[in-house]
Design goal:
about 220 residues; alpha+beta
């Protein structure tokens, strides 16, 4: 009888402890859930609907080679993807970060070697909106790679009066950049047109400003 009484006591105490533990576990689980939800909320990206952005897609083709370009055109940390096909050796896909939103792309042959380059154009928004170019060069249609772009500001005379704005464009097969000339923080009513050239560098092609002129 005494043994039965001891067993019943132990059983009762075990249930009490288990109940407390369950409550503790439930409380901890609730706390953990709150923490996880808070963390998810902190890292969740901002919702972007199609009304807030216009994705960019364009296919460029010349001879056996095709380049497919795409960009989500998101306002922050935007990217550009270039996917080729038809190159003889390597058809690597490149994804690069771009400033602003991608607006257009086209093929050209600035160095006149018979093989096309890809030029993607982008523009930042805001009062200091600036135009950008992102070029890719073909290595005799065997492979291709990213072209380095020399900053306009490295050419003091060509950058005189530059405070953003403007555009990149092709004229007669030549890449040019036009922007309003500012004086004392105000537009002067004149534009500077910079001509760019494509040159073979030590490791890759380089796109650089080579001359400029002032236009009314």
């Amino acid at each position: 009888m005494r043994n039965i009484f001891i067993i019943l006591c132990l059983f009762f105490l075990g249930n009490c402890s288990g109940g407390n533990a369950s409550k503790g576990e439930e409380s901890t689980a609730a706390d953990d859930t709150t923490a996880v939800e808070a963390e998810k909320e902190a890292i969740r990206p901002a919702h972007l609907s199609r009304r807030n952005r216009i994705p960019f897609e364009k296919t460029l083709k010349q001879g056996p080679v095709t380049f497919r370009l795409s960009s989500p055109n998101v306002p922050e940390e935007n990217t550009l993807v270039v996917a080729p096909s038809g190159l003889e050796v390597r058809n690597d896909t490149f994804q690069i970060g771009v400033a602003g939103l991608v607006t257009d792309a086209q093929l050209a042959d600035l160095d006149k070697d018979g093989f096309p380059e890809v030029y993607a154009f982008a523009r930042s928004s805001g009062p200091d909106s600036t135009a950008y170019v992102y070029p890719f060069a073909s290595y005799r249609n065997r492979s291709y790679g990213i072209v380095s772009v020399t900053e306009l500001q490295t050419q003091k005379e060509m950058a005189e009066g530059f405070q953003g704005h403007g555009r990149f464009f092709f004229e007669g097969g030549v890449l040019k950049r036009s922007f309003p000339i500012y004086q004392d923080g105000q537009p002067s009513g004149k534009n500077r047109v910079v001509t760019y050239g494509l040159q073979q560098g030590e490791a890759s092609f380089v796109l650089a400003p080579v001359s400029s002129q002032v236009a009314e």
